Amino acid sequence: QVQLVESGGGLVQAGGSLRLSCAASGRTFSSYGVGWFRQAPGKEREFVAAINWSGGNTYYADSVKGRFTISRDNAKNTVYLNMNSLKPEDTAVYYCAAVSRLVLRVREEYEYDYWGQGTEVTVSS
User: Fold this and answer.
1) Please, which residues have CB within 8 angstroms of residue 67's CB and are 6 or more apart in sequence?
2) In angstroms, rounded to a whole number, what is the distance separating the alpha carbons of residues 49 and 65?
3) Strand (E) positions, the chain?
4) How far is CA 19 from the centre of its chain?
5) Is the pLDDT of residue 113 over 80?
6) What is the pLDDT of residues 32-49, one digit of tens each?
7) Confidence band (pLDDT; 50, 70, 90) for 102?
8) Which of 2, 19, 43, 103 could connect to 26 by a Cys-Cys bridge, CB 3.0–4.6 Å?
9) CB-count burial class (<10 Å; 0-12, 13-18, 19+) for 110
């Protein structure tokens, strides 16, 4: 069982930066793949970024590629999402999710077994 807690959200102006953190309980978190998803008001939740257990493989949605960076520190049981050049359309609740097995469809919500409660990001224009 893994529990995930996101933090780092807040209000930022367009062009600014934020770093989200996803802290996990559980000694085996270093073997989990982790994804970030977001849900904007009135929209469905969508994939943002994912990272495999070692950090050697990362995946991004086209809308954030080049602006967001996902990374992890397994010694701290934490995955990060560095967000730069933020745009108003990045406004959403951001969720991290984890899965203990190897998955191929890292962009699909159904692949993930554990979810955090989300952290809100608001980007003002």
Assistant:
1) 83, 84, 85, 86
2) 9
3) 4-7, 10-13, 18-24, 33-39, 46-51, 58-60, 68-73, 78-83, 92-99, 114-115, 119-124
4) 10
5) yes
6) 999 999 999 999 999 999
7) confident
8) 2
9) exposed
